[in-house]
């Protein structure tokens, strides 16, 4: 996994996967709520879970994010119903972002102090000109157009 393009491929597989499953205890601990709260949110239909063969609730990564968003909005003072609605709106946005990342992240390159990620062709530009994002180790990031050899 030393090659940045291999890491991009791995990232795309992780983004596409919903097979990562977490226990109710793991999720409760991660978002600082009780398992009882999570079960209640599930009962109300605000959070979806998978049930294992042994009958245990298992949460996908998107369900963890959904529950975390609900907890966040509750902590901000929203009612449970409004927190769930806002979390659902966030879920839809995250789903679109996930689709974008799956379809647009083509290659990754290690550059000085960071990584350059190829997001592919740009409408109304020649096909060899791609949009890239440079993500730097200091947290900075920026977009640029660059001719590629593909």
TrEMBL record:
GO molecular function, a single term: DNA-binding transcription factor activity
Pfam families for the chain: MerR_1 (PF13411)
Highest rank taxon of the organism: Bacteria
Family annotation (Gene3D superfamilies): 1.10.1660.10
Annotated keywords: DNA-binding, Repressor, Transcription, Transcription regulation
UniProt domain HTH merR-type: residue ranges: 21-89
InterPro entries recorded: DNA-bd_dom_put_sf, MerR-type_HTH_dom, MerR_fam
PANTHER family named among the record's database cross-references: MERR-FAMILY TRANSCRIPTIONAL REGULATOR (PTHR30204:SF69), REDOX-CYCLING DRUG-SENSING TRANSCRIPTIONAL ACTIVATOR SOXR (PTHR30204)
Protein name in UniProt: MerR family transcriptional regulator
Natural source organism: Pediococcus acidilactici
